[in-house]
Amino acid sequence: MKIYVISGLGADYKVLERLVFPEQHQVIAIDWIVPVRDEKFANYVKRMAEKVDDSEPFYLLGYSFGGIMVQEINRLKPAVKTVILGSIKSDKEKSRLIKIGQYTRIPQFLPVGLFNIKTLETYAVFRKFFDPKNPKINQYFRFTDPYYLKWSVQRIAEWKFEQKDNVIQIMGDRDIVFPFKNSKPDYIIKGGTHLFPATKHKEVSQLLKKIFI
Length: 213
Fold this sequence. Notes:
about 35% helix
């Protein structure tokens, strides 16, 4: 069976490349695309979903913002199972910081030029958010189009969703982007920061072997 995989905001498949999937399945990475100017989220989801062949059963897996995306794709093209890593399964699980962005709409009014990796790297909070002890953190963030980054942050802040039954949630207990205390995850990775798919890949791989049977 095919497993369609979407990585996190601004990240390519590299953050997930150390994960080991059951060998009987075919893993297909779906790359992010740049949204057209003022594109609605629903239309963007449809374009991303075009890469999923639903003529046969399949699985979905998403990390961080990719977890939100695969849940939206799951609405259009239902998967046998949808697995989210370091992500939330409903808008009720948003962190306080994200909720502030939702209610104040601050991301909408920030200049596009602020949303680039070089700018973010100057802020200690950027490194702290993901993994303060990981010296290779910047290598995971390759998709750096400023408009895409700003658009994505806005979509995360505005996202509203009701949990679906076929969603399996895996979270790290030290993740401050999406704190696990706001959720009831199916599995918790001990000592896992937001980058746990890379730093705790052995533990995650063992779980994936149980889930993707």
